[in-house]
Amino acid sequence: MDLQSHYKVGASFQAIRVLFVLLALFCLSLANVPSTFAADSPAPPLSALTFRMAGDDLRTRVVVMFDREPKLSTRLFGNPHRLVIDLPETRFGFDEKSLEARGLVSHVRYGLAGKGCSRLILTLRGPFDVENLRVLKNEDASGYRLVADIVATSDRKFAEKLKEQKGKTGSTERARQQVAGSALPGNGKPRPFTVMIDPGHGGIDSGAESLSGIKEKNLTLAFGKELRDRLSHERNIKVLMTREDDTFLRLAERVRLARQHEADLFISIHADTINQHDIRGATVYTISDKASDAVARAMAERENKSDSLAGALPEEQPEVTDILLDLTRRETHTLSLSFAEKVIGELQGQVNLINNPHRFAGFQVLRAPDVPSVLIEIGYLSNPEDEKLISNPEWRKKLADRIALAVKAFAARKRPSNLSGG
């Protein structure tokens, strides 16, 4: 082979080597194409697997289970009161039965809210606050859970939350307008001392009934209105009622109303029956885990069954451990005891009282942690003498006058701490 032929063969081998290199690079690029497409393809939608609620009209816990960690945001709205939870596109697999109204939540909706976005909307029975909202990894299974603790609050505090939210996000102008004027004093005037009168029972829940057919629900409403009218003449005292007609209210709803309106005092009115027909006279009850006596224990057990007797299902209460809440309860309990003693002081010598008229038991309707509360048995429909007195408008007016004096004295003592409206 001559030199020229040698160079031609070498050039050919060089060209073939370059061709193989280019072919290998091309194959490598083709091999990478599927992984590139896979990286750019959208992730499958989030899955919301289950929905659970527990609680009552004062405090409700919502738990939503997800297949993976959700990225979410929340907003509050008014009129109606709503908690809106925005999620990435989500497939919802909720059991419809789990969405039935419970506690503070009256309605649940969910679905797509736009391209790549889904929304979960909780409609609440009244003003509320999200006390705690967490996304937690499941310990015993795959996936994550959203836990939201929702508590009843006052109109004023809810409006403040919306105002604060608007300042942060600028997204609640319409909702803020909807509740404008509903709560914030803003006029520099002292907030009036607010009394919530709670006529026991109502609607399908008639309460006790005397041998002659007089129903407790009617007497408590009549006396509640009498007390309201008497207190309405006092300066700097605002009077509200949980019901002004023949309406059924759950026990927790009565407490929620007191907290919604930031009541300074809650007075629940009753006129029960007991087996010992010779027992008569007015009684003032405050709350306690341990009953003062057998009569008090029986009374509390009966009153606490009002919801179930009226066909309302009992609701599980989420466990709460809070040092500040415990301190508030203690202060509130001290104020409740103080008012109870003032009532008894005004009634002594004026109306008949039961022996040891200040008693205590675990009445659910008295459990607001921040509202001093008492339950007043104005008499017992099981006693003929008491029935006659309770049915007498003049006697009810006299009793209302005496209780109003106790309220006035209690308000005068408590008012200095309320001037800030906080």
Ordered list of secondary-structure elements with their pairings:
Blueprint: H1 3-40, E1 46-55, E2 59-66, E3 73-77, E4 82-88, E5 90-92, E6 105-114, E7 117-124, E8 128-137, E9 144-152, H2 155-169, H3 173-178, E10 193-199, H4 216-231, E11 237-241, H5 251-260, E12 265-270, E13 282-287, H6 294-304, H7 306-309, H8 323-347, E14 353-361, E15 373-377, H9 384-390, H10 393-414
CATH level-1 class of the largest domain = Alpha Beta
Query: How many domains?
Result: 2
Shape: elongated
CATH fold topology of the largest domain:
Aminopeptidase
Mean pLDDT: 84
Q: Mind telling me the CATH superfamily name of the largest domain?
A: Zn-dependent exopeptidases
Beta strands, count: 15
Percent in strands:
25-35%
The CATH architecture of the largest domain can be named as 3-Layer(aba) Sandwich
Neighbour order of strands in the largest sheet: 11-10-12-15-13-14
The N- to C-terminal Cα distance equals 108 Å
Q: Spans of 5+ residues with little confidence (pLDDT < 50)?
A: 33-39, 170-186, 416-422
Q: Mind describing the biggest β-sheet?
A: 6 strands, mixed
| Broad structural category | alpha/beta
What is the H/E order?
Answer: HEEEEEEEEEHHEHEHEEHHHEEHH
